[in-house]
Specification:
The structure holds 2 protein chains of 2 kinds. Chain A has one domain. Helix content of chain A is 64%, strand content 0%. Chain A contains 3 helices and no strands. Chain A is elongated and about 60 Å long. Classes of the chains: A mainly alpha, B mainly alpha.
Chain lengths: 139, 854
């Protein structure tokens, strides 16, 4: 249709199989927020539940270790998700704003968004874990 | 724009519009048919319209009326507070005023206005003729209108709710008699149902009715935000509805969910309310950012800088906002670590919020020098105000500061900066921006500027002093204060400011309502925007869009040559309505590949009657008139069934239809490709969230009580609950089998399977309710039996609805409205039953299993 498109040949992404619509899923975008929410709930419920039953100045050592564990798992999952997103973002040649009407750019866009979302979730997880670094009792 | 970067790329097989326009005669004949098909009803039948442009307009107008109503309530409060010891209104009236003001602004303006506005403009932005379920939008609107008028009316009978917009028990359970809290709980629950209906509509609209080629990386940012907000509504509103159910049960039936003397806990309400209430703030805010995101590139004349980053901001703010609710509960005596977690989470949301603001500023900086027109003025005024509100938000997110500022005017100042700056200014700006799309006329630039400066200056005079009043010790929600506090001057300044602010709104209202008969129509695309909605002619035609375009860019009006001409001349899809039926395209969710030519419903009064019937249930129950409520409910159910029977999934006269550009699409689709399947899926997700909120309550009591179940609680045993579960799962299996038999065209097995399913479902409901009845569980004695009963009743209601659905499918096939090939009804009903099976499993595990292991 448009004369502007004639200059550029159709793209051939490195991995054409992965760019069919059936190979993509919007659920990937939900994965990073899901990791964050599971971490937040686990952290909060562990702490709140323990302190609801324990004395006011009860030591938090066990809870803090548990939170450290949750945080390690969540961060690992999020780093893997971020890596997956980054790889998709870098697939093929174009690094532009991913706004072409091509399967490849849609693929890269979804990857980049997953990457950014994982970043936001890493931030959220780190913030939610911070109080456990400083708090020693249920007070 | 595109000349500064590499040429735009497309796939080799991308579709071109017709090279030659159809002849003039053909075009005129097409237009005549389209016009006849989409004609808006006239006379009194005008109100039977269901098309998005009418419903959206009514909806938006009514929301703005509620905004003005809420504003007048605020002015009355400001008069009362202008000087110490005033007796302009009584304490009791003042309580009603602030409760109504907050509730009206939140539930009748802020949330619905974005849904209303989206119903109006989203199809235009997506180049669709209408949303997939126009009658659902209409039903939602009429529910909203009935509920809203009922709710607002209460204050004129001195019956308005007085508990504050968050209705904390025990104030609302033990100390407030009368109907006020019931009007709040039932009236607003009804409106929340309408909100969820609109969210389903918008979600399916964005995922399934985009124009061909509008891949997920090309959709307008507005649609991204609305997608996020619709999902948030599905997760935020159901917990509130669950909370409403608990609170209303305590008020009406004395089931002690929030009574600590009987195992309840008032903090559960606070949790459920704020799991809704904090995301709510972002549900209100993000759509306004969406408006900004669509206006900024237009004025900067350049694509949005950092599209992906803005998408990140929308998604990131959306999910992080669900992790902040406890910051409204900092002073309830929670352990320090809980406070710390939520304080930190509250700080973290500033990051995505900031990202989008920086993207907008960057866009304005790199673009051509933006002309400071009225909409942009409101956007910039909104930015500055919102940023100040955001910063005070970071302050109150810090626990020690919050302990001081909690429930003072500092919080009032903060929340109004966020909501007026973040939400209302962009909305008023958007009314100026989008107004030509409604009637083809522009609003006045002069009046707009005047309105802006009055509002902006008035806002600051009103709310900046409130931060000080609060820090000096003035609590929220007091109807007066003594002179010795020395707050008279600051309060008087706020009152003066509020009238300046109100005069700005008055100018705005005058501009909208003034006669524009002699004013010429606006030129087409008056702002030079790049998004599809501005392809509309002035004034617009009722058909939505002349032909549905193939999209290659985020800003097709800028990037696709001859785009508007090709739409106008019917060179794209669906340029005609050969059968004179309302049609739009359904596409796939990621790449927007066309999958169906969807026929959407036309004008009707059935939705009004259905809304009336359902509304009656809530209104009559408020006054404890249970028989009329029941009758009204039955009437509503019959009307809904009648609407579904006559209007949904009709078997088309032919299998496929040519929609233009060599594309032939099916007219009937069932399963995950169909819009109805998505709507059922999304609705049931919301239902599941409400159920999970109740289950959360069950386990919350376990943490809050020393023993849960209490030591003297009756034991349900395992036999009856498990028996009920078994029967329920049998009903589920039978329904799933019936779907298979239908598809295999074996009526001899289909009917018996469905009948077996219905019988098993009924038996399951009876057995599940028999279990607590048998051991004499008294729900008023303790929160434990109350919770057990409630979960089982929840299951029984779902089973009963499931039986109605099974009966519906039985009748559909018998009436030849469903067959082996056209099976959307049974497919969607089976999907419903999957959720019922899950609900039963979780319930029985909780009420029968948990006591055995705890």
């Amino acid at each position: 249709m448009s004369p502007v498109s004639q200059g550029a040949p159709p793209e051939t992404p490195r991995d054409p199989a992965s760019t069919a619509e059936t190979e993509e899923s919007l659920w990937w975008l939900a994965s990073a927020p899901l990791a964050w929410v599971l971490h937040l709930l686990a952290t909060y419920l562990t702490a709140a539940n323990y302190c609801a039953k324990a004395a006011e100045d009860a030591s938090l050592t066990g809870v803090r270790l548990a939170i450290a564990g949750y945080t390690a798992v969540a961060l690992l999952a999020l780093v893997l998700l971020a890596r997956r997103g980054w790889r998709r973002h870098r697939a093929g040649e174009s690094l532009g704003p991913h706004d072409f009407d091509t399967r490849a750019d849609r693929h890269r866009f979804l990857g980049f968004t997953l990457f950014l979302l994982s970043g936001a979730a890493i931030l959220g997880v780190a913030f939610a874990a911070l109080p456990a670094v400083f708090m020693e009792t249920c007070r | 724009m595109s000349d500064e970067r590499e040429p735009r790329r497309r796939e080799a097989d991308d579709v071109e519009p017709l090279a030659e326009a159809p002849s003039k005669e053909v075009r005129e004949a097409q237009e005549e048919r389209l016009r006849a098909t989409w004609k808006t009803p006239e006379g009194w039948r005008y109100w039977s319209a269901v098309n998005n442009s009418e419903v959206g307009l009514w909806y938006t107008s009514l929301c703005l009326i509620f905004l003005f109503f809420g504003g007048v309530l605020a002015l009355v409060m400001r008069i009362q507070l202008a000087q110490p010891g005033s007796d302009f209104v009584t304490a009791d009236q003042f309580d009603q005023l602030f409760t109504m003001h907050g509730s009206v602004m939140m539930f009748l303006f802020a949330v619905p206005v974005f849904e209303a506005f989206s119903i109006m403009v989203l199809p235009e932005m997506l180049g669709a003729r209408d949303l997939p379920f126009p009658r659902l939008s209409a039903f939602g609107f009429w529910c909203f209108a009935i509920g809203g008028v009922f709710f607002c009316g209460s204050i004129f009978f001195d019956m308005g709710p007085r508990g504050g917009w968050f209705m904390y028990p025990p104030l609302t359970t033990d100390y407030l008699g009368g109907y006020g809290p019931d009007i709040w709980l039932l009236g607003l629950s009804f409106i929340e149902v309408a909100s969820i209906a609109a969210a389903v509509e918008l979600l399916v609209g964005i995922l399934k009715t985009r124009p061909p080629g509008m891949r997920i990386n090309l959709i307008p940012l507005y649609a991204w935000y609305i997608l996020v907000v619709a999902v948030m509504i599905l997760f935020a509103f159901p917990p509130l509805i669950a909370g409403d159910v608990l609170l209303e049960m305590e008020r009406l039936l004395d089931w002690p969910f929030f009574d600590p003397a009987r195992g309840g806990d008032p903090l559960l309400w606070q949790h459920l309310f704020w799991i809704f209430g904090h995301p709510e703030v972002y549900i209100v805010f993000l759509p306004s950012v969406a408006l900004v995101a669509i206006m900024v590139p237009t004025f900067a004349k350049t694509p949005m800088v950092g599209y992906s980053w803005v998408v990140l901001a929308a998604l990131g703010t959306g999910f992080l906002s669900f992790g902040l609710w406890v910051h409204h509960m900092f002073t309830t005596g929670l352990p320090g670590i809980s406070l710390g977690i939520f304080s930190a989470a509250s700080e973290s949301i500033a990051v995505p919020t900031g990202v989008q603001i920086f993207c907008f500023i960057a866009t304005l900086m790199v673009g051509k020098k933006a002309e400071l027109r009225v909409p942009l003025l409101f956007v910039l005024g909104g930015f500055s105000t919102f940023v100040i509100g955001g910063l005070t938000g970071v302050m109150v997110a810090l626990v020690p500061f919050d302990m001081q500022a909690h429930d003072t005017y500092f919080v009032v100042g903060h929340l109004h900066s966020v909501l007026i700056g973040g939400t209302i200014f962009p909305i008023v700006g958007a009314v100026y921006y989008f107004f030509p799309l409604v009637g083809g006329k522009q609003l006045s630039e002069k009046l707009g500027r005047l309105a802006f400066w009055l509002m902006f200056i008035g806002f600051n005079i009103t709310f900046v002093p409130m931060h000080l009043t609060g820090l000096l010790g003035m609590p929220r929600r007091v109807f007066t204060y003594p002179e010795e506090l020395g707050l008279g001057t600051l309060n008087l300044v706020s009152t003066v400011g509020s009238f300046v602010l109100a005069s700005g709104f008055l100018v705005f209202a005058i501009d909208v309502l003034r006669r524009k008969k002699n004013q010429p129509y606006s030129e087409r695309n008056p702002w030079g925007a790049g998004t599809i909605e501005w392809s509309a002619p002035m004034p617009d035609e009722a058909w939505g869009i002349r032909s549905i375009p193939e999209i290659d860019s985020r800003y097709p009006l800028w990037d696709q040559p001859n785009f508007v001409r090709d739409i106008d001349e019917g060179r794209f899809y669906l340029p005609d309505a050969e059968e004179e039926l309302r049609e739009t395209l359904v596409t796939s969710p990621i790449d927007a590949k066309p999958v169906q030519c969807l026929r959407v419903a036309g004008p009707t009064f059935k939705t009004h009657l259905a809304a009336l019937g359902v509304g009656g249930v809530f209104i009559f129950t408020t006054f404890h008139w249970y028989w009329p409520a029941l009758a009204s409910g039955v009437f509503g159910l019959v009307m809904i069934l009648n609407w579904l029977w006559t209007g949904t999934a009709p078997i088309p006269e032919k299998k496929e239809k040519h929609v233009g550009l060599g594309l032939t699409l099916p007219l009937y689709v069932s399963g995950p490709g169909a819009v109805g399947w998505w709507a059922m899926m999304i609705t049931m997700l919301a239902d599941l969230v409400a159920f999970m909120a109740l289950v959360f309550g069950y386990f919350f009591y376990w943490t809050a009580n020393d023993t849960w179940p209490p030591t003297d609680a009756e034991d349900l045993g395992l036999l009856w609950p498990l028996g009920g579960l078994g029967l329920g799962l049998l009903a589920w299996t039978a329904t799933a089998m019936a779907r298979r038999f239908n598809r295999a065209d074996r009526p001899g097995l289909f009917y018996p399977a469905l009948a077996l399913g219905a019988l098993a479902a009924l038996a399951s409901g009876v057995v599940l309710l028999w279990a607590p009845w048998r051991v004499g569980m008294d729900p008023t004695r303790h929160a434990y039996p109350a919770m057990v009963w409630l979960l089982l009743i929840w299951c029984a209601i779902h089973l009963a609805v499931g039986v109605i659905m099974q009966g519906y499918c039985f009748a559909r096939r018998a009436a030849k409205r469903m067959d082996a090939e056209h099976d959307a009804d049974i497919v969607n009903v089976t999907l419903y039953w999957h959720f019922v099976a899950l609900t039963l499993l979780v319930t029985v595990a909780a009420v029968a299993g948990f006591p055995k292991v705890s």
